[in-house]
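Entry 12.
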Amino acid sequence: MGAELVRYTVSDAIAEITLDRAPVNALSIPLIDALLERLAKAKDDEAVRAVIIASAHKVFCAGLDLDIVRGQIVNTRTGAQVASLAEVAKIGYFRQDTLPPDLDVQFTVTRSHVANNASYYMGHGAHGAYLDIDPTTGLIKLLNYWAITDCGRVINPLIVDDQVRGAIVQGIGSVLYEECIYDEHGSLINGTLVDYLAPMAFEMPDIYVEQIETPERSTELGAKGVGELGLTGAMGALWVATNDALRGLGATIADQPFTPERVLKAIASVRTGVI
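Predicted 3D structure (tokens):
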């Protein structure tokens, strides 16, 4: 699984956090937000600043008053840039032989965070699905899809919109296509993409996504989860839309996925009186 390196500025020092590229990533932003707030308040932050400035003193400019401003080591009297944090970090990690032996070079502060005020940060949204059911074949055709979601503070609207779209497609797959089928011996018989139906671009409708922002009050950034907004909303919307379309025939369906065979069975059960 790949990883993404994200840089944040905390009290004019640099904090680096590694994010796994996983579906749970939707919850990473509010949790990182709370973690960074705690990190910024940590006393160790000042200790790291002192070590960084001491290292810069020894290598670049002994005798000057230095400080860290916007990722740079600067002369506090003139404001002139002396070195970047990246340059100091390279010396601290790879050229410690150029530093005094009594200087304990520790550039890392580690903190953990548990969200005691909430078990998760839930977003909100509204979904609508427009579909057509052929009563002779049982095929469900998606015609249009709309979603308005609220994940709190949006950092990158394009990423959020497409994350919602991807989650909606996952919800569509769960309701209409995807199913694990086992034989009488417990062996999976549709274990390849040749046999396992997954939603493809051809079956997908246009998906219209809009964002509204209601900041989460318990996080510094105001962010909430976003990925679940597409998945859970899509599943509910498709259940309602499918059964609404079948209502005119007096039929209902409740077994996922809503395959053509199950749709035809639901229609036939009304005609025969057998469910």
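Annotation: Residues 1-27 have pLDDT under 50 and may be disordered. The longest strand covers residues 140-150.
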